[in-house]
Amino acid sequence: MEHGPSVVSLAIVVLAALLTPILINRLKISFLPVVVAEIIIGVIIGKSFLDIVDASDPWLNILSTLGFIFLMFLSGLEIDFDAFTQKSSGQKKSKVLKRPLPNTLMLTVGLFLGILALSFLFAFTMQVFGVFDDVFLLVIIISTISLGVVVPTLKEANLITTQMGQIILLVAVLADLATMIMLAFYSQLYADSSQPIWLMSILIGFAILFYLLGRVMHQSHLIRQLNNGTMQIGIRGVFALIIMLVALAEGVGAENILGAFIAGCIVSLLKPEQDMVHKLDSFGYGFFIPIFFIMVGVDLDLPSLFSDNRVFILIPVLLVAFLLSKLLPVAVLLRYFDSKRVTAAGFLLTSTLSLVIAAAVIAEEIGMITNAESGMFILSAVIACIITPVVFKQLYPKGENEERTINVTIIGNNQLTVPVAHSIAGGLYHVKLVFHKNYTDAREKNTENLSFHEIPEYSEECLDAINAFDADVVVLGANDSNINWRVAQMAESHGVERIIYRVDDPAQENAVKDSGFELFSTMLSSKTLLRGLIESPNMMQLLSDEETSIYEIKMNNYRYDNMMLRDFPFTGDIIFLRILRGQESLVPHGDTQLFVDDRIFMTGSREYVEELKRELELY
């Protein structure tokens, strides 16, 4: 009886994918990125050593190709396009800054252009000295930065929301986008294809069409209903988008990974719920992508690679080019940060992997480089990925987020603002109460966590003089709505993250909501309180009692991302009541996982809640 292709090689690769993260965890070699470990395991079981995997196995070829496609999709999905439109945080003071930052987007674009220029210089120099001839390919390989290494490293160090973390991330995003586009043009220029390059515009046109269609479907009530249970229409739609764009990319003569990358960018622009992103990560990094990276290692033939004397020239030269092309442009940041942070940032930006592998594989497929040269490029990327995250962690100063306090500025002096200022001041909250010169209560004195500031008028000059906008939260609580509106506009222009606006006039509510401010209505609060006292008197007592209050914490600390509550390291006088995740409201259990952006509701002692707030919110 005839049998189909053997699945023995597939079983070995899948088993290797299962055991690799377990070995990393048990051997406590956390400095090694999992994808690099998977390549190393592939080298061990592949043709370089044990040779127990058949690299020509059709099962492995299909799954490895799917892994490559899904890796490029997730690379596009990781790009946060909101970063290009965020306002500069240069107005806000920071203890790590020597001077205010300029526009962050312009700064990072300048840094990437510097990286690109130096990459061309190194590539041209290597051609002149006969190290390697293909300048275009070298520019792509030297200038690319791996988001797959940068993002997890920043998350692990809890730096992704800091000013330096945002700069590193945005430079990596720009490099990922630009080098992906360059790689698409490279393959189109040198591939043996009869398709004209202008056909790629068809792919862009369909991408825009799919994005517009996705926006309509994303807001559809029917689609939301079908997104539960066994239907999972959102996941089905994403896979359909990937396959259609991959097929279109191949149809116009481009590489299939370009279609996958564009699909990832489209999904990112549609702002999917965090739960869907976690599901897509699970599909990719749980099955397809490990097979691809292990097969990269299986295909590496190290004995024949090191028999070529060029390996001892090309790999060291590439590593130097990787490092200097990032360190030299990043030196501009010495105007704003200390040398340790800047040097560490340069090393982290040197990490490169996915697109180097993509470029090497594509260049080999179209006959521009040999198998040995492809192996040299991949090996240099692996070495860079092993070294640079370790150096970054050693160099970057520890404890940037240790002093976690929430600075609150309250505008106005009245029977509402003064008691609230007194009640929250202390521990986690540092409060400034700002008032007009007609304030007459001389009994109020400044304390460590509560300060009173009398100003002649609510002008930007007077408020800047007392650093009123150097705050995480600004509360507009004055009795005069005109004052509240003027100061709210000033706070927004200074980049204050949260602006809480007191509204007494119902006619003003819509304007406040349209401006994006958080609304507080004394009239609505009074109605809610009275209704609560009538319907649920014990519940209102619970909410108003400081010892049994219900608190809300937003989970911003990536260290606890994906952690089960039973493994949560904090114990004490506290009970988790509810977790809000997107549109879902979850009752927490021991096996409930915490995710970044979750809103956690809890009750317990105020001191312990404030300790948790410092740890999870990372203000």
UniProtKB/TrEMBL annotation:
Q: Where is the RCK C-terminal domain?
A: 537-618
Positions in coiled-coil regions: none
* Claim: Cytoplasm is one of the keywords in the record: no
Give the chief site where it resides: membrane
> What does the UniProt entry say about where the protein is found?
Membrane
**Which key words tag this protein in UniProt?**
Antiport, Ion transport, Membrane, Transmembrane, Transmembrane helix, Transport
| TM segment ranges | 6-24, 31-50, 62-84, 105-129, 135-155, 167-191, 197-217, 238-270, 282-300, 312-337, 343-363, 375-392
Q: How does it sit in the membrane?
A: Multi-pass membrane protein
Q: Which family does it belong to?
A: Belongs to the monovalent cation:proton antiporter 2 (CPA2) transporter (TC 2.A.37) family.
The identity of this protein, by name, is Cation:proton antiporter
Q: What organism is this sequence from?
A: Salinicoccus sesuvii
